[in-house]
């Protein structure tokens, strides 16, 4: 498990390899990831947006921006957490992801970013 804390918000990531399949005459590698966002601060916060960079071993980079996570903008009071599952497709069996969440602190009304640590996406057969 990969973890990182930014301004009292802990991000934990677990990954899984889901398999391969052909799409548009090209082999793709499917990966899943589970992210837990835990509010260890003394203030209530809300996740408003996400920014991802997805890298693969063929030197392809995809940038993904969007509101919330899986259609939600969770509000986390102190001590609360939010867990969600998502995934991505790569054209190589090895890759990585990183990024950040845009959040707002309800006490100070300030926006801030919470960094998502780099996590690797590896198909088991690609490692030796």
TrEMBL record:
NCBIfam families recorded: PRK05461.1 (NF003967)
Domain of life (superkingdom): Bacteria
Organism per entry: Sungkyunkwania multivorans
InterPro entries linked: ApaG_domain, ApaG_sf
Domain ApaG, residue spans: 3-128
Encoding gene, per UniProt annotation: apaG
Protein name: Co2+/Mg2+ efflux protein ApaG
């Amino acid at each position: 498990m990969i973890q990182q804390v930014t301004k009292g918000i802990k991000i934990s990531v677990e990954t899984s390899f889901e398999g391969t399949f052909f799409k548009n005459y090209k082999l793709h590698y499917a990966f899943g990831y589970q992210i837990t966002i835990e509010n260890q601060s003394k203030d209530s916060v809300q996740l408003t947006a996400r920014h991802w960079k997805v890298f693969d071993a063929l030197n392809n980079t995809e940038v993904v921006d969007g509101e919330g996570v899986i259609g939600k903008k969770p509000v986390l009071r102190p001590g609360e957490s939010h867990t969600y599952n998502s995934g991505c497709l790569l054209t190589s069996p090895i890759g990585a992801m990183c990024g950040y969440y845009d959040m707002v602190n309800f006490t100070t009304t300030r926006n801030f970013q919470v960094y998502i640590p780099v996590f690797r996406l590896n198909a088991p057969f690609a490692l030796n």
